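Dissemination and training. As part of the outreach component of the grant, students in the summer workshop were shown how a complex can be specified as a set of sequence lines and then modelled as a single object. The example used during the hands-on session is reproduced here so that future cohorts can follow it. Participants entered these lines:
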Amino acid sequence: MSVVDWTLTETASAIAERRISSVEVVAEHLRAIEAWQPHVNAFVSVFAEQALDAARRADDALSTGRGVGPLHGVPLAHKDMFQRPGRRSTCGSRASPPPFTASTLLERFDAAGAIEVGALKMAEFALGPTGHNAFLGDCRNPWNAAHVSGGSSSGGGVAVAARLVCSSLGSDTGGSVRLPASATGVLGLKPTNGRVTRAGMMPLAPSVDVPGIFARSARDAAVVLRIAAGHDPRDARSSSRPVPDYALAFARGIEGLRVGVPENFFLEDVEPDVEVALAESRRVLESLGARLVTVRVPRPEPLTELSRALVYAEASAVHSTWLRDHAAGYSPQVRVRAATGFAIPAPIYLQAQALRPLLLWRFVQAVFDDCDVLHLPTLGMAVPTRAETDVGSAAAMWDKIARLVRCTAPFNYLGLPAISVPCGFTRNGLPTSFQVVARPFAESTLLRVAHAFEGATDWHRRAPPLPT
Amino acid sequence: MPGPDTKTVLDLAQLQQQAWVDEAAAQRIAAGAAAAIEAVHAALADFEAGLQGGDAADFLAALEALAGDEP
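and obtained this result:
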C-alpha cells in the first residue's frame, strides 16, 4: 500500500510516531497530484515549495520534541474560497473578487499542524452542482473523466478520492459537499447549520452556507470536525454548544438504532441501480443491529425552492456591486443565478426565513420521534456525463441539474446535519452512496452510522486507477 | 404561477443598476424567482394566517433547542 492510500488518521499517527517523515508524505502526495492533475483538473494551484518547507519545519518540530497537533505534517487542500491573508482566492471565477476576512478554519487547521498543498477547483462562485467551470476548466471525475465530478466543491471530492490529499474542506449550500463526495466515492459531511464557523469563507448565501468535510473514513471526518467545530467570535451565527470527541461514540455501534426509511418523496425518483445499492446498504445496517422503520416526511416538496428563495436573495445581495461593475467577468448562466434574487420581493425572503424554524420543528418532531436517523439517497441517479449536464446542451439539461439537488437541498433549508456514505457503483462504473440525516447537532450519530457501515463493507477503500 | 413578468424584472434590474440584464436574462430570472415565490406561498398555506416574524437568529435558537441526546 502506498503512503497516499493511508487515511488521515493513519498518516497522522505514522508522522507523530516518526515512522515516516512529513517531507516523505508531502512529497508522495505532490507526485500523485502531478500525475493526476492532467486527467482530473482538481487543483487551481499547487503550493509545492511552501508545502515541502512546511513539512521540513514539521519534521524539525518533532525531532526537537515540540508539541504536535492532531494534523501534524498531514497534507490537505481546500476549495479555493477559504481566505488566507496574502493570497487571493479565485472563488472559481475569473472576475477576481477582492479578499475577504481571514478564514478561521484555516487558522484552526494551521494550529493543528496541517500542511496546505494547494487550492482546489470549484464551480464559479459556488453556483453550480456539477463541477463545470467555463473559465477555469471542468473538474473531472477520477473514475471516468467523461463524467461530472459534482459540485460546487468539485476539487474536494476528486482530490480525496484520487488520494491527492488526506481530507478537504468545502462548502455546502445545496449539496455542494455531499454531491461531489457521492460522485467520487468518498465520505461527505455537512454539519448542522452553525456547528462550524463560516468566517473567512466566501459567502454565497450566508444564512444557508455551511462548511463541510471530505474524508476517506468516518474516523478521519471525526478528527477534522472536532478541529473545525466550535464557536467563533467572528461568526455571530456559530453555535456555542460544546464540541464532543466524535469518535468516542464509535465503540457503541448501531445496535438498536432506528433507521428511518422515507415512504414519500425521497425514494420516488430513484434510478433502479441506485435503489439496489440503497437497499443493500439498508440490509447491511440492519445486519449490524439497526432497526428499519418506515417514516412519512412532512411536506418535503417545497423545501428545495424555499431554500432557493433564501439562496437567490442572499446571493444577489452578496454579488450586487461586484456584478454591477464586473458583469462581463461572470459566465452568462452564473450571472443569471446570482441576479435571480433581484426579482424576489423582500417580504417573500423574510417569509422564507420566518418559515424556517416552523418547518424545522415540524420536520424534526414528525421524523425524529419515530427514528434516530433518516436514510435516503444523496443522488438518486447514476453520475451523469459532463456533456449531459453542460449548459450548452438540450433543455433536458435543466431538469437533470434540478434532480441533482433533490435529496440534498431540503436539508440546507432545514439546517440539519447530513452525511453521504459511499455504498457501491452503478452500471456506468461510477460511485453511488446513501445519505443519512439526523437531529440538529447529532453529527456523532451520523459518523457512528458511517463508521459501522465502513466496518462491514469496503466501498470507502476503493480508489480510482490512474488513467494510462 | 405568481411571480414577476419580464418587464418587471427589467425594471428591478435597472433599480439595482444591473445594466447587463437584457430580455433573455430577465426571462430566466423571472422563471427562477417565480418558482421560489410559489414555494413560499405554498408553505405559508400550511400555517394559519397571522403575523409572521422571525429572523436567522431564531433559526439557530431552534436548531439548538431541537438537539437531542445521543441515541
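The mean pLDDT of chain B is 89. Students were then asked to discuss how this feature might be tested experimentally.
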